[in-house]
Amino acid sequence: MTGMLRRSVAGAAGAAMMALAVPAVAQQETWKVGSAAQPGSSLLTIVEENMANWNKVPGFKIERQFVASEQELAQQVLRGRLQMASVSFAGISPAGFPEAALANVPFLWSNEAERNYVLDGTVWKYMTRLFEAKGLVAVGIGEVGWNGVVCKTACMGPESLKGLKARVAPTPASRMFWSAMQANGVQMPLSELFPALQQNLVVAADLPFPYYVTTPARESAPFYYDLRHLHHPSLVVANKAAWDKLTPAQQQGIRDGMLPIAQQRKMVADEIAEKVKEFRAKGGTYVELTPAQRDQYRKLVEGRQMELVNGMGGKSAELFDLMQAARREFQQRKPGG
Length: 337
Prior knowledge:
single chain; alpha/beta; 10 strands; 52% helix
């Protein structure tokens, strides 16, 4: 009996020690961050550098998970299957955030400085509130780049796009742009684009160059026109229920761990300059359009901008008014403006 008692006491003590240890183990949070970024692009480099910083946050660990469809990325974070995601504004807009698509209105910005001023201030503050109301936390803003038009054969100028079978992204801006070009639009998610190009189901699309050049599209559609008709900002969002389980110190560490947006934009710009050289050296065609050439497309699009905004739904009209006010404010801040 004495031996059994000793074993019982020892077992109870061991169980007590294990129970005391549980809270310490529970403090370690392991998250997954989803991204559609491809290897070899600055877009993935940005995600990985953010992750390296986040993994320095005490009691926090994060792993990356590739998800080809950005719409699926957004849904997985909303449902809590992923704790966090790096996703473009266009990618998250169909998931109940139509206002995010305003950042992609074709030919909206006069220049990059104006764009950055409005996006980093007015748009970011407004969208942060909308995300939180629907179960997401906006951690930080990011960069993807400008869209250009890609084709399987030469397609310079709006006339060349008439009647072409073009992939239309599941966003209002994409539908409006390709409609203005009078293309034969075929809506499909990004994950279906590459086999569609290879099988000639579509022969044109529009993509940001840093992403395009890391995908099979660079081989099957080797003509890239740097139209810059719409810009893709991105963001990192977290599931609010998961976020609320973190300590304030961990939350702040994750926010602080994101690369500054100015650094991200420089990384993307530097990569484009280098990748364009490589692309051309391998036989690809990269065309930099002049302002006059861009104006040919702009004239077909600008008259449709307000119709696009009014049809987006949600609080899009309200946010767009604020964006226009911020644009005017920016112009007044310019020297001599």
